[in-house]
Write a structure and sequence with these properties.
322 residues; 2 domains; two-stranded parallel sheet; flat; mainly alpha
């Protein structure tokens, strides 16, 4: 449904307002920093710095951290959270101050600072609960969910307010949506594999952190194989969908989104195999966990680019019924 741009009241025009061009940069900055926090959060864990600050919100009973490597890494990640919060707040406030006003920007924009606040609370709980793997998984997955809102916001600000949703054959739309849902499952499976792995986040500070141990000694191997086989199936499905979409002549935007997703999936496959055969080196695990966020954004973008079933196909059942 097209969303019309409405002119603001005269009194509102005299106050602080945001142009569409400026607001677009707010949206880009929010998406970029929300991706960055996933990169930095993974680095904290994989350098063993998760308990570099043993308490929260202060660090070692001070707002100025001790000059120790792991403490500075953990404290630096907290500062990055503050950096992330700024563009998210600007995006939320700017959605109301943008002129012309667009109602469709409000919900995804407001979700961003609320999500960052929830992330800060989860981050504190992660420290207070001694890097509990359940909370760590929740912390990562909340970041993944926030990327949905950020990608939707960027998608909308890049399009005119009166632009209709893209339309494609019903089979294409359903396949893209199904692939994104399955991609979410693969990411969740990956977090459980990581929760059973050797990178608990406390190695740098000498802290013992409990690991996921659902299947005893075979837990890590079992979860890695589950994640790996699921990801392989996703890669095959993505290539098949790319070929099918190309044959059906989908829009250039959807084809680009699927191409980017396929390339990222291929890179993830290589990283996954390398890290497995090299006994999970921290640097490659970091790249694998971080790149998953970029792949997820590409999948969400593909869903938006696929849009809805074409009008002719939507009306076909009614015509047959008549």
């Amino acid at each position: 449904m097209a969303v019309a741009e409405t002119a603001p009241p005269r009194r509102a025009r005299e106050r602080f307002t945001v142009t569409p061009e400026t607001y677009r940069w707010f949206a880009y900055a929010a998406l970029g920093t929300l991706t960055l926090i996933i990169f930095s959060g993974a680095a904290v864990r994989l350098t063993g710095s998760g308990l570099g600050c043993s308490n929260w919100p202060r660090c070692e009973d001070s707002f100025v951290p001790p000059l120790e490597t792991h403490t500075l890494i953990e404290f630096g990640n907290r500062l990055v959270t503050g950096v992330v919060g700024l563009p998210c707040i600007l995006a939320a406030v700017g959605a109301f101050r943008r002129r012309p006003f667009r109602r469709d920007l409000v919900v995804p924009a407001v979700l961003l600072p609320l999500g960052v606040l929830a992330q800060a609370i989860l981050g504190g709980l992660t420290v207070l609960l001694h890097l509990s793997w359940q909370v760590v998984i929740g912390h990562y997955l909340l970041s993944i969910v926030l990327l949905i809102a950020a990608v939707v916001l960027v998608w909308r600000v890049r399009r005119p307010a009166d632009a209709a949703r893209p339309e494609h054959p019903r089979g294409i739309v359903r396949a893209v949506r199904a692939l994104a849902v399955y991609g979410g499952y693969v990411i969740v499976a990956g977090t459980f594999a990581t929760a059973a792995g050797p990178h608990a986040g406390g190695a740098g500070t000498g802290d013992h952190v409990a690991r996921l141990d659902a299947f005893g000694a075979d837990t890590l191997r079992t979860l890695i194989h589950l994640h790996g086989h699921s990801a392989t199936a996703m890669g095959v499905a993505l290539v098949a969908l790319w070929l099918y979409a190309r044959r059906r002549g989908v829009s250039a935007q959807l084809q680009r989104a699927l191409t980017v997703a396929a390339l990222l999936m291929a890179a993830q496959g290589v990283l996954g195999l390398v890290q497995y055969h090299l006994a999970l080196p921290a640097e490659i695990v970091w790249a694998h966990a971080s790149l998953a966020a970029v792949l997820w954004s590409a999948l969400v973008w593909a869903v938006l680019a696929a849009g809805q079933a074409a009008a002719i196909e939507r009306s076909r059942p009614a015509a047959l019924a008549a």
